[in-house]
């Protein structure tokens, strides 16, 4: 495959399709949500937006994302493995449908996670994208396991990564334009790594797939942002955030290339901001004595708003942080594994120190009017 310009010329159409379809579908989804009464009503705590806002934004994003991937199946069947891409598309649609069901009926967190895990396991079984994960990790530790154990560990790692990405994206969907914008930036990081691997011809089967998936998510996210940026005219809902996280998780698994751990570590660092926010929320809820699935204002972006920053300013700061982690993730293009591991360890430690110094991880007192039932973040 040629250079970067050649890649852009061949694959840009998939980002443009996702962008155009989502851009057109989003106002239609908002209209349909109003007609059907699928609205997100403010509660002045977990949902402090000013007025009822339509959901179904996730359906528009799913439509744009799916359209781009289906077009790839038709246009370049010789470059993308149909037996891999079809299950990925069906899995994404299923995750989006699960999120929509949660938007409409507020599923118990355990049920939502169990159903999501079932979808992800089926995708991994039919695609084989997680088959060698354990080998990639354990080979660097000079550990060998029986093949049956290796496959089982690989599936557990894959499930943990993708399901974790779905829930991390769901947790970061708390301000106008936050989740879609951050995901677009993350997908740009994925695209940079995927483009390098394609130029170096690392994998004939996976090169095109990674490029198409990254561009489809960039296009869908950017097509949704005009009506989602503050003040939002429509929300993603779990239907959208679950899909965005699913795409990111599958992309990370697809970077498990030739048993070289560096590419997948780079993908994980590109996804660093949602990981950081999820870790912060879990720690703060644990220190506050709350169930980790109980929605609250423990996220870093909530705390910045509570400290007097405007929503737009917090979202723009989040974009910069997402770009910082994405740029760090892309250093795998130039650095070897022996340098990447200590670099990423230093970044993780520095992030933890920053959290401590800013007081973001301190225990939070439960207000008298706080919700007492366990409700997932929206």
Structure description:
Helices cover 69% and strands 1% of the residues. With 378 residues, the protein is an all-alpha fold. α2 packs antiparallel against α3 and α7 runs parallel beside α13. The radius of gyration is 20 Å and the shape is globular. 49% of the residues are buried. Mean pLDDT is 87; it is low at 367-378.
Strand order of the largest sheet: 1-2
**If helices are DSSP runs of H or I spanning 4 or more residues, what is the number of helices?**
14
Q: Give the low-confidence spans.
A: 367-378
Nearest-integer average pLDDT = 87
Number-wise, the strands total: 2
- Binned strand content: under 5%
Q: Biggest β-sheet: count, sense, barrel? A: 2 strands, antiparallel
Number of domains: 1
Which percent bin holds the helix content? 55-70%
- Class based on secondary structure composition and strand pairing: mainly alpha
Radius of gyration: 20 Å
Query: How far is the N terminus from the C terminus?
Result: 42 Å
Q: Name the shape in a single word.
A: globular
SSE sequence, one letter per element: HEEHHHHHHHHHHHHH
In brief:
The protein has 378 residues and is an all-alpha fold. It has helices at residues 4-36, 57-75, 82-105, 109-127, 133-138, 147-171, 178-199, 207-228, 237-254, 261-270, 272-287, 300-306, 311-329, 337-357; strands at residues 39-40, 53-54. It has one domain (4-39, 53-357).
Keywords:
378 residues; mainly alpha; two-stranded antiparallel sheet; 14 helices; 2 strands; disordered C terminus
């Amino acid at each position: 495959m040629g250079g970067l310009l050649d890649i852009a010329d061949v694959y840009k159409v998939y980002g443009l399709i996702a962008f155009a379809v989502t851009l057109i579908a989003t106002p239609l989804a908002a209209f349909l949500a109003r007609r059907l009464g699928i609205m997100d009503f403010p509660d002045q705590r977990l949902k402090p937006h000013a007025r009822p806002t339509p959901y179904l934004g996730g359906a528009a994003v799913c439509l744009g994302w799916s359209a781009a991937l289906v077009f790839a199946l038709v246009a370049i069947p010789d470059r993308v493995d149909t037996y891999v891409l079809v299950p990925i598309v069906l899995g994404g649609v299923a995750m989006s449908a699960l999120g929509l069901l949660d938007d409409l009926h507020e599923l118990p967190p355990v049920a939502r996670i169990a159903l999501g895990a079932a979808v992800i396991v089926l995708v991994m079984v039919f695609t084989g994208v997680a088959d060698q994960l354990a080998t990639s990790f354990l080979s660097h530790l000079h550990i060998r396991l029986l093949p049956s154990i290796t496959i089982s560990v690989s599936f557990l790692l894959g499930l943990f990564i993708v399901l974790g990405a779905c829930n991390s994206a769901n947790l970061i969907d708390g301000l106008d334009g936050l989740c879609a914008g951050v995901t677009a930036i993350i997908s740009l990081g994925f695209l940079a790594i995927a483009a390098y691997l394609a130029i170096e011809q690392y994998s004939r089967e996976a090169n095109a797939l990674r490029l198409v998936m990254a561009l489809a998510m960039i296009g869908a996210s950017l097509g949704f942002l005009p009506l989602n940026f503050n003040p939002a005219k429509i929300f993603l809902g779990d239907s959208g955030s679950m899909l965005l996280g699913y795409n990111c998780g599958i992309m990370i698994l697809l970077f498990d290339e030739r048993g070289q751990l560096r590419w997948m570590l780079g993908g994980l660092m590109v996804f660093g901001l949602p990981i950081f926010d999820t870790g912060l929320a879990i720690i703060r809820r644990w220190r506050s004595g709350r169930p980790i699935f109980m929605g609250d204002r423990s996220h870093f972006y909530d705390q910045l708003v509570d400290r007097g920053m405007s929503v737009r300013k917090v979202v723009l700061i989040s974009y910069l942080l997402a770009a910082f982690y994405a740029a760090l993730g892309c250093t795998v293009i130039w650095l070897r594994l022996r340098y990447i591991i200590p670099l990423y360890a230093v970044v993780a430690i520095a992030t933890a120190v920053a959290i401590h110094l800013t007081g973001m991880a301190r225990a939070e007192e439960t207000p008298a009017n706080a919700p007492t039932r366990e409700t997932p973040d929206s």
